[in-house]
Amino acid sequence: MAFFQKTNNAPQENGRPIIDLRGVNKFYKTAVGDFHALKNVDLQINAGEFVSIIGKSGSGKSTLLNMITGIDRPTDGEVFVNHTAVHGLNENRMARWRGVNLGVVFQFFQLLPTISVVENIMLPMDFCRTYPMREREKRALQLLELVELGDHAYKLPTALSGGQQQRVAIARALANDPPIVIADEPTGNLDSKTAEDVFKLFNDLVAQGKTIIIVTHDSGLAKRAHRTALITDGEIVNEFVAQAMPTLSQEQMLWATRHAKKQTYEAGSMIVSEGTNAEAFYIVSKGSVEVVLPRADQADVVALQLGAGKFFGEMAFFHERKRWASVRASEHEAVEVLELRYDQLDELLNQSEATRDALRQIAEKNRIENLQKRGETK
User: Among 57, 86, 181, 273, which has the highest number of CB atoms less than 10 A from its own CB?
Assistant: First the structure.
């Protein structure tokens, strides 16, 4: 059943993401001094994306969630959600705004035990007055059908299993048809079969235009979202670093994120040229690049295209520090890359032999393919 209005979830306004955190810092005062819970966090999520936020206990996941939902405010920085400056709302406006724009699913359900399931779902509509009173029960029943609990509408929550209560909590989060649904450890207290059902429901909601964010400690579940934001010690690990070198530890990914230098190249411009001295390893973070090989007495050939999360410069790192090919930005758009100097890459790989081995194998495979495409032998 699909009865959500996709107009609520239209493409981001003027190209802006539906969630946009810019330079967010959060300090908490403690008996031993200020605790830096979030450190210069930048995070952008587009409308219609399914994003997981993952990190160890105490990494800053809950604080990040509180910034997005407006439950807490940044010490400095800006938080825009559905084109509203959340960090600037007063408490009265915040509650009303949150009720219309966000649906929040809590780990422990937080259903009121003394009223029926359908009445629990009607509560957000009552608070925000988003639907005429005569329509609220009908809509709540429709939502229960969506989560396959229509037969349980007039039971008390305590009569339902944990998995059923979680689905009621999801239906309640959808009551006001918000464009964004945020779920905090939504499968943490569920068995694997029920957790799978809940995850399928989230996928169905994304297909209907919702933006879904789940906060989880389950890395397997997180990887099934469209994107994963890894947070470590209050900092967001660059997702493209994580894609390029998944065998690094979280701390090593964070080190690479801190040291990588962001570079932007105009469409069609050359990034590196074959035969030149090589000094850096590159990870594509926006747009795409073309790897270009010259061929004797023939036109140069575009050997392959590399999109976000792919990398180049690994062959020169392991073989003679000379560029084996030219790489240029795609002719259609500017490209952004993350640059790690070879001395920085070497320092990183000294901490992760598995990553060194993985990159070495890729470099050797690409070297052989490079020679074959030129018509040369190994």
Answer: 86
* 8 A C-beta contact, residue 112 and residue 157: yes
Q: Cβ-count burial of 165 within 10 angstroms (0-12 exposed, 13-18 middle, 19+ buried)?
A: buried
Cα 341 → chain centroid: 26
- Among 342, 337, 340, 339, residue whose Cα is nearest residue 318: 342
Record the tokens describing residue 38, joined without a space. Answer: 């979030």
3-class SS shares of the chain: helix, strand, coil, % to 5: 40, 30, 35
Split at pLDDT 50, 70, 90, the class of 125 is very high
pLDDT score of 139? 95
Token pair, residue 220, equals 């397997």
Does residue 81 carry a pLDDT above 60?
A: yes
- pLDDT tens digits along 153-166: 999 999 999 889 98
Is the pLDDT assigned to residue 309 strictly greater than 80? yes
* Token output for 46: 């587009």
Q: Are 114 and 129 in contact (CB under 8 A)?
A: no
- Rounded Cα distance between 172 and 165, Å, is 10
Tokens at residue 248, please? 């690094």
Beta bridge partners of 338: 262, 283
Residue 349: how many other CB atoms lie within 10 Å? 21
Cα(237)–Cα(253) distance, rounded to whole angstroms? 6
Angle, CA of 220, 189 and 207, to the nearest 5° = 55
Sign of the dihedral through C-alpha 252, 253, 254, 260:
positive
Name the pLDDT band for 26 (thresholds 50, 70, 90): very high
Pick the range with the lowest mean pLDDT from 91-105, 261-275, 306-320. Answer: 91-105
Give whole-number Cα distances, 367 to 195, 246, 345, in Å.
44, 22, 19
Q: What is the pLDDT of residues 29-67, one digit of tens each?
A: 999 889 999 999 999 999 999 999 998 888 999 899 999
- 8 Å CB contact between 102 and 175: no
Looking at the DSSP bridge assignments, the partners of residue 120 are none
What gap in Å lies between CA 327 and CA 290, rounded to an integer?
A: 6
- CA 244 and chain centroid, separation: 15
pLDDT at 20 over 80: yes
